[in-house]
Amino acid sequence: MNERRRSLAPLQSNARSFLASLVPASFIAHRYAFLNMHEIFPGIFTWGSTYADRPWDLNGYAIALTGGTVLIDPPAPEEADWQKLPTPITTVVLTNRDHVRDAPLFRARFGARIVASKDEISQFTSLPIDVTVQEGDLIGSALRVIHLPGKSPGEIGLYIEPAYHAASRDKSGILVLGDAIIGNPPGALGLIPEEKLDDPKTLRGSLPKILKYDFDVLLLCDGQSVLGDAKQKVSEFLEGLG
């Protein structure tokens, strides 16, 4: 973690009070810094948070579409960054059961519907899911669902279809992954610890599916994203898995 991120202030007291009314206090206590929101590509925003007990950044994404903004695995932004979110926020997509993060807050604040895989719905024991999706479905008329089981039954990735999104077209394709692959250690690709995987063998069998898509950018919800030559790097990573 670089020094800039180490120096970010803790959650401001007014934001902490608001969050405390919506999410468990123990969840807030473990969060110690926010990563500032910025527009990573036109119409695509990212921000995140770091936690004392996890060695990588947890990133959320906002993708502005014609019918409304879709959030992916969003933590709550820093209080000053709320106004940077493109509105209206209509949808929150959860890539897996462990990425609920602050989805309840966005539902309460914006009335956003929560979307997850139909194969993952039984894994969300405390969060109602409004809409379920499956392999090949299109969310917000631009985000193609890729079913990547193994970490959990309904892990999904999202491919931003270049035909329907200018930034993805300009970047030769953009892929978003939750826990299927993470950007840790920094500058490299990896998998989450094996004890957190339901079925490592199934996950390894699922991952080659993403190479059917053309993408030069890989946006990761855990760890550092890959902003160039991403498909080649994923291919090399998968070859190394054996």
Quaternary structure of the protein: single chain
Q: Compute the CA-based radius of gyration.
A: 17 Å
The first-level CATH class is given as Alpha Beta
CATH topology: Metallo-beta-lactamase, Chain A
Q: Could you list the spans in which at least 5 consecutive residues all have pLDDT below 50?
A: 1-32
Strand order of the largest sheet: 1-2-3-4-5-6-7
- Annotation, overall tally of beta strands: 12
Structural class: alpha/beta
Can you summarize the main beta sheet?
7 strands, mixed
Account of the 3D structure:
By secondary structure, the chain is of the alpha/beta class. It has one domain: Ribonuclease Z/Hydroxyacylglutathione hydrolase-like (Metallo-beta-lactamase, Chain A). 21% of the residues lie in helices and 27% in strands. It is built from seven helices and twelve strands. The chain has helices spanning 3-6, 13-20, 25-30, 103-110, 166-170, 200-206, 230-241; strands at 31-41, 44-51, 58-65, 68-72, 89-93, 113-117, 131-133, 138-139, 143-147, 156-160, 174-177, 217-220. The protein has a seven-stranded mixed sheet. Strands 8-9-10-11-12 form a five-stranded mixed sheet.
Can you summarize this structure?
The protein has 242 residues and is an alpha/beta fold.
